[in-house]
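Input structure tokens:
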């Protein structure tokens, strides 16, 4: 079950809502009303999309000599 994140892009509101959805596609198509201002929120992230990178897996850029 992916955790979907919805954001309200109304200036001055910018509420964030997290909701567990049965499927990512369902979460993406769901229309959430902003609890604060009532406008439709945008699905910003569904849990089944690309995994968030793990910092310890990231390779640091090679250090180049200054000359
Ligand atoms: Zn709002």
């Amino acid at each position: 079950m992916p955790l979907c994140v919805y954001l309200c892009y109304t200036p001055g509101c910018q509420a964030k809502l997290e909701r567990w959805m049965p499927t990512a596609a369902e979460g993406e198509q769901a229309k959430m009303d902003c609890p604060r201002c009532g406008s439709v929120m945008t699905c910003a992230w569904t849990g089944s999309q690309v995994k968030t990178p793990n910092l310890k897996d990231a390779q640091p850029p090679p250090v180049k000599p200054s000359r």
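The mean pLDDT is 85. The first strand starts at residue 3 and ends at 7.
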